[in-house]
Fold these 4 entries.
Entry 1:
Amino acid sequence: MAQPVTERAYQGRVHVESRRLMTEWMGELGRAEAAGQVTGALMISGNCVELLRACHVLPMFPEVTALQNAIRHKSLPLILKAEQAGYSSDNCAYVKADVGLVLEGGFGPGKALPFPNLIVCNYVGCNVYVKWFEHLADISGGRLFMLDVPFARTDAPSAADVRYVVVGGVAVVLHGHPRLTADLDLAVDLEPPAAQRAIGALTGLGLQPSAPVRAEDFADPDLRSAWKRERGMPVFSMVVTADPLRAVDLFVDEPIPFEELYARSVALDVAGTPVRVASIEDLITLKQRTGRLQDEADIAALRELEKLGDGP
């Protein structure tokens, strides 16, 4: 009869096996330069390590190296070294620990960790990491590849798949006309499944309806029509209760058919994230319907931006 494995015994076996695997891997890296083995630096999340292994590329993980130095209480001097070289004090400690190790001579020819021949920056949503790998390529002379590896997907849209278009004051600002605005106006696909996903995403961020209605009711076209007809609600307002300045307004109908609005929208970069913003033409159309002084001022500004866009 097999002996029961206690939690402590299991943890001990995992520790021993982890140490063996790490030692073998680090040994391979230490021999890579002399053996002419091609090495490739990868991020942890969403990486393509199986592909590189199949091509006989030995993976390196700068994040793991930084973490190992932290476990050994060796990271602080490396972080300070990177800050002395110009890295911001509020930058990611992983980045600075790794860069500091390079500056200290911990990487490179003849070292236990060779410079990678390939730097595969599999973008996972963090622009700091993108810059980190760009710097690693500059330092090492390795070839940099930017590869956006998707996470597991299904044929059907997930709860987080939401098509939207930014409209209103924020859209005006993103097109290049600075002005104050208090909330974020969005047009979303109002087909019930899509509307449900949009509401699920917003409530997941802590937003709740300002009006005394249920958030999920937004997906019901009959209720939206009643809100507009009986309550004069052109938009469905949502706020974070603890921070009322975080507010989102959703159109309750489609002044412009959503498919057309989305097709003509432009993807503008906001802090490294592509954001769908209504075209200037559609923004003008939407604002012409309100008659508000602010919207008239926005239309004038948008027409000027339109002229600049038509220039040489």
Note: The CA atoms of residues 108 and 114 lie 5 Å apart.
Entry 2:
Amino acid sequence: MNPSRSAILALACAAGFSALLLGACASAPAERYFVLDVAPSNRPALDPAYAGDLSVRVGAIPQSADRPQIVMQRGANELDVREADRWAEPLRGGLERCLVGDLRRALPAAWISSTGPHRDPDPLRLVVEFTGLDAAPDGTVSLRAEWTLATGDGAARRTYRRNLSHKVPGGTIAAIVGAWSDELDELAQEVARSVIARPAAPPLAN
């Protein structure tokens, strides 16, 4: 008994759908995950003697970059959201982790933490806000930030700003993330200088 025409058509459609599904799966690029790096520990300290207490917090970050995918500029008013190139941790957390690590290297005798506890019940408070985290089509990678330093009661509050920019040969995602990591280290150096320049707090009683 020959199979009916409708049965043959159904089998053909099912086979075609399966082929399309397999083709779509095969063409989807594998996801890659990236993290920002803390500067190598063998770099020299900025001030080995500074022993203050510093609380670190990352405030606002660009909304366009605050997502799992790495975002690059495609043009003046267009972004390229890289679906296959992703952050391995929330971007805000990665920025904060690297800042703390880079500051600890720059000021090794200081007590620096984003989570506490602190030696001083009223540590110097650092809040860093990122206003730009860009990777342009011409290979320019840039970071823009401003930060405030204040005591717990808000006294002697000061605000600082820094724009950093580098050209990245090749423009690979790994190179771009590496450039952002280097710029975070440069930012930490500037933050550390602003911390050192403040009047020192009196030592804690034993």
Note: The first helix runs from residue 5 to 27.
Entry 3:
Amino acid sequence: MYRSVKVAALSIKPIKWNKAANADKLEAFVAAAAREKPHVIVAPEGILEGYVVTDVLLDARLAESMFAIAEPIDGPYVQRFQRLARASKACLCFGFAEKVDRQIFNCAIFIGADGEICGRHHKTMFREGHHPSWTFNGSGETLRAFDTPVGRAGLLICQERWYSVPAHTLVLDGAQVLFIPSYGSKRRAQNLAVLGRARENGVPIVEANVGLNLIISKGEVVAYQWGNDQITHGVIDIPQRPSPEAARRLEEQFLAWRDLEMLKRYEQADALNDVPDQDLARRCEEEFLRWQDRRRRACRRPD
């Protein structure tokens, strides 16, 4: 059994080092996306500061500037988007450089429609590798799912989507849906990687990448859009958590469908009794082939 949830992904391209302008742009896009009344709106990695860590990697003298632009979890910009979530009546998910004491983490946050922070995640994998001295780019040490208004969720950030274990770990921790803020590859290979994570784990995925939005449900792409500054809407089906109650509801649905199907098959089989003998073999063969086709479709029907 599934819960259908409306989502929106934003392929916003931020301006490096311009936190105020990026926040204004994100707010405007959230307001525009909220007109379609989605339950969740997802924006890219590093959307507030503009993913400036790449600049610091090239010039270490910029590290102090990154500390100045990084945002604490209880900072004014996070609070601004907590208020926006409440006003929009939508959950918000996006990435930013989070300042924790004298260290910065590449962070993704999930804010509920009530404005409360449901969970956050620090990036654990980096394309450029990692050194313990990089206080401007701390390495996350946990992969944890958390409860949200749309179900238990997990967050991955960009590079982590390439690997099967982080996604599977989150699903083992109960995640029913994965959200991926990204600022990276837009190649076909990344689309296939995200699709693979969804199919491996049987959960929907919403990715907001700079220049690309990808929404996957039931192992299929339900929405895809290329280009910067696009708003992509879609509906995902979030599977229910395993439980005896959910199993009994699905059992009841199946048996109700089964009763009608068996009656229909009985009536069709009974009709064969009136077929002239010379046509009986041919009609039986045709009926058997139709039955096989119904059987295949029936196996797929009870979603």
Note: The mean pLDDT is 91.
Entry 4:
Amino acid sequence: MSVFPRRDFHTILPVTSKGGEIMKAKILGAAALAAVAASSAPAWAGIYSDDATRCIAKSTTEADRLALVKWIFLGIAAHPSIKEYSNVSAEQRIQIDRQMGALVMKLLTKDCHKETVEAMRFEGGGFLEKSFTALGEIAMGGLMTNPEVSAALTNWATPEDKAAFAALAAEAGRPVPPKP
């Protein structure tokens, strides 16, 4: 899954001021980088993309990772089959898209400028997908460790399901997890 959306940013960011023009240009620039990434992704990861990925990961704060998770959630929630379960206003969507655009541009053009240029120069733009996929995994991992999220994702299992899984584990010679 690509972190970068495939959609028309002109419909998301109406231009009402010079600041709007600048933000729109930044996000369109990020979209252009994503297009480069999609068209020139190498089949392997090199040292420069690894360096860029490490820099991007270490340059984000917990707030940055939460902004990324919100943006991913909004992207997923836009799917017609689950849209009804999300109540996100157009203003909230615009705000979160702008936060994501600012984060991407900060990471690529400021915090990790050197690593971005080197990765693009020596390995092409394909590193972007790898770097932001890794960042998404880090951000989602942090979210998944929350006890409320963890509990919500295990509510589906009935006592019968848990017994069946315990039987599978025993048959496979694996220790049966303790009951909470």
Note: The mean pLDDT is 79.
